């Protein structure tokens, strides 16, 4: 995975700050390929609790992680009991690596 331990820890902490102590984050997509270069950062933010305003949560998380990554584009996918699940969720759960 092309993330330092320090950044991985910081991203996981941001998730807990914004989505609650039980929130978890998975990295999926091109960042898992150690031989690739560049690319955005695809994250699955998992909340065991319903999310009241998913668009706002995803935007805030994306911006904060983007700043941590020095402006790198960050795509955030949310998973919560009150949100619809799409095929991209299956890919993120299957292929993603937990931070």
Detailed description of the structure:
This protein has 99 residues and is of the alpha+beta class. It has a single domain (5-98), classed as 2-Layer Sandwich (Beta Polymerase, domain 2), CATH 3.30.460.10. Helix content is 39%, strand content 19%. Strands 3-2-1-4 form a four-stranded mixed beta sheet, sandwiched between helices. The longest helix has 15 residues, at 5-19. The protein is globular and about 35 Å long. The N and C termini lie close together (10 Å). 26% of the residues are buried. The mean pLDDT is 93.
Quick structural summary:
Helices cover 39% and strands 19% of the residues. A four-stranded mixed beta sheet has the order 3-2-1-4, sandwiched between helices. It has 99 residues and is of the alpha+beta class.
Topology record:
Blueprint: H1 5-19, E1 24-28, E2 41-46, H2 54-68, E3 74-79, H3 87-95, E4 97-98
Parallel strand pairs: 2-3
Antiparallel strand pairs: 1-2, 1-4
Helix pairs in contact: 1-2
Fill in the keyword field for this structure.
99 residues; alpha+beta; Beta Polymerase, domain 2; four-stranded mixed beta sheet; globular
The topology string of helices and strands comes to HEEHEHE
Describe the sheet with the most strands.
4 strands, mixed
Helix content: 25-40%
Label the CATH architecture.
2-Layer Sandwich
Count of separate structural domains:
1
Could you say which overall geometry the principal axes of the C-alpha atoms support?
A: globular
